[in-house]
Amino acid sequence: MAKSKITNTGNLTSNSMFFNICLFAVLLIAVIILFHSFVFSDKGLWGSDTIQAGMFFRGFYADYYQQTGSVPVWNPYQFCGIPYIECFHGDTFYFPFTALKFYMSVFRAWGWNLFIHVFIAGITMFFCARVFRRSQMASALAAVSYMFAACFISQVAPGHDGKMFVTALFPLTIMLIELGFSKKPLICFSCLGLTIGLIILTPHPQMAYYSLWACAFYTAYKLVFLYIDTKSIPRLIKPTSLFVGAVVIGLAISAIHFYPGYQYVKKYSPRSDEKRGEEWARSFSMHPEETFSLIVPEFCGVSGEAGNSYWGRNGFKDNSEYTGVIPLMLAIVAVALIRNRKTWFFGGLAIFALIHALAGNTWFFYLFYHLIPNMKSTRSWSMIMFLFSFSAALLAAFALDFIIEQGQKLKVKDRRLFVLTLFSIPTLTFLGGLMFSGAPESAINIYKSIFYNVIPSQNAIALRSHLGTIAAGFWTTFLFTTIAAVFIWLYAQKKIKVVLLWVVVLVAFIDVYRFDRQFIKTYDPATIFAKNPIVDFFKSKPDKFRVLDTTGQRFLPTNYLPYYGVEEMTSYHGSQPNWFHKLLGGTAMRNIFNFNLMNMTNTRYLLISPASAVKGNQLERVGFIPAYQWQNFEIFENPFANNRAHLVHNWVVEPDTARIDSLVLMRSFNPKSQVALFEDPGISPTLDTTSFSADRVEITEYKNDYISVTVSSSVDGILVLADNWYPAWKAFVDGNEVEVMMANAAFRGVVLSAGEHTVEFMYISEAYATGKMLTLFGLITALAGIAVGGVITRNKNIIAEGQQDG
User: Fold this and answer.
1) Beta-carbon contacts of residue 489 (< 8 Å; ≥ 6 apart)
2) Average pLDDT of 106-115?
3) Which residues contact 554 (CB under 8 A, 6 or more apart)?
4) Which tens digit of pLDDT belongs to each residue from 163-189?
5) Contact at 8 Å (CB) between 210 and 387?
6) Distance from C-alpha of 793 to C-alpha of 795, rounded to nearest angstrom
7) Which end of the chain has fewer CB atoms within 10 angstroms, the N or the C?
8) Could you give the CA distance from residue 572 to residue 79 in angstroms, rounded to a whole number?
9) What pLDDT does 806 receive?
10) How many beta carbons lie within 10 A of that of residue 590, not counting itself?
11) Residue 553: per-residue pLDDT
């Protein structure tokens, strides 16, 4: 069969700008309607993970930036202090979008960012399809399919903004590679470097990693066929060099965040040495239930705020991988009937993405797990489905143009294949609708016998209550696919004009839009994050102290106290320093009620509720003092807590990191009068406690990146600061830099001689400084490449015009 030939429908026309403006206006209106409950209100857009952590991260950043004009380097409110930049507190350097939070409430800024990126996804996908010479109608179909795909929109519900940012920007990468191989290569690959840098700064390392895979695959595909067409190896050198340069530029641009973050994750995060194993890597992979939901989105159900109908094998499912059945149906047509390199490539990319998403449940898992770098440290491989969605949307555009150009000219053999592929999904969904409507128990028993032999009882209950929705889903999918297929078939039979194929675009939009709505919910921040008297109580206390919040999420939002500037001993993050993570007792935080741990962390107050593991009478029996009560909350004061900074004159040296945690948590260890060290401090201990009466320690300044402490002592000792040790914190005694020892397995210790001293702690991160320099280099290089490329293009145009005039 002949290749598809796109003529006028694939070229820019005189009214293309007017068409683009109208299309973008329609897309914008569609996004506004989808997000109307957020747009036309003062509420926040619901995202479960963002409410748990992201609102505090962003609120702290915005407040600090507005007060100082700079980015915070340290987060003092969680886990006795953690690095801010290195610990990936969200889109810190994802400019210009992160700047929205500086000009409006973080709740509204976060929602507007998601709204904007849904619109951006449509724009980038449209222009990407146009670069592949797709018609305006086909490009509109690609844009609608990609920007409203549930695998994209459903990320709103869990609050996975980083995934949405990467998804929205990704079409630019393929578009720029395609352009770079045909014209203005220096400009295009320099812009590719900027785009890659921005994608990594989102920051979602795993999604960025998948994006780089796709870029590498597509560049390799272009190079292979460039060689086949030219038989010239030298012709490969320039595009190869430019692509490698673009990746290097992208990595350099992202270095301000990625480089210190990568160093931290590799060396200091709990993720650096946890043996997560295969089961962890398999977790949240796609299952057969989710795969069937690519055709009928209601099939496996959803859980969380979006609903509670999920019956699949993952622990919960608050998002969906559904990419739209209309683009999927047309993608099958494209792969089956259009025999050209691009459909082969994007069909292969879609299959690859699907296999990777399913890999945790197939033998392919071992190939990815053991052969691809860094896959052992990742999970939720199903997030690669944005590449499936992109490929399906682009292939659908190819298919629609093929139908427009070739649909009425097909030979008998190809026409049969065309009808078979076009009506395959309508036929399957019709049969599924009959089975789940007429004999739902039999239908699900057949499914379970093949795919889900041992279904947990709780999942089985959810499934039985969901059978009606599944049946309705089959009939809805049958209706939409049949409408699209019939209009396409009528056009192929010369029964209708090409303009009526816009119905296919409309049906594709309605199909995903009706499913997307459940993932868009709002909430009132003034209710969830309302300031209560508990905050006022803590804020009224003048000294430095920490709080152990044991109330549970049912009573206060996670990170509620840090949101209001109250420091916690624990909290919610996931990338706290490894040494403190171990001291707490791992992810389960088994040691949080250990008296020594509370005392040495400056935890002066315990906040409890009826859901707390400890009760008020238990605390009173061990000497804690009732300090405040409001509604179901009680606050108890710990009178034994150490001050934030204090002097000790006795120590225990334990070089074994595996034993020091147990040592400091033992009852025989007294953190008020002694400290555990990994090495000898080089001074002699003092056992005569009468000489300690002259000790005086006062924190005179306590900033994000600077702490000043004045100390007076009649004997040598060690100043212990109950903030997490981290190599970026440097200490200066009377202006001279000294070593910051790790004290009590996690905190900071400085050796002091007898006398009066001023001890200054300064945050000086070499990794952050290096990252900033690399980012500056990357930006300058990219901009220089664009400028030089512009000059080269201009000169070529001048020469060409001169030759024409001659």
Assistant:
1) 419, 422, 423
2) 95
3) 611
4) 999 999 999 999 999 999 988 899 999
5) yes
6) 5
7) C
8) 9
9) 53
10) 10
11) 64
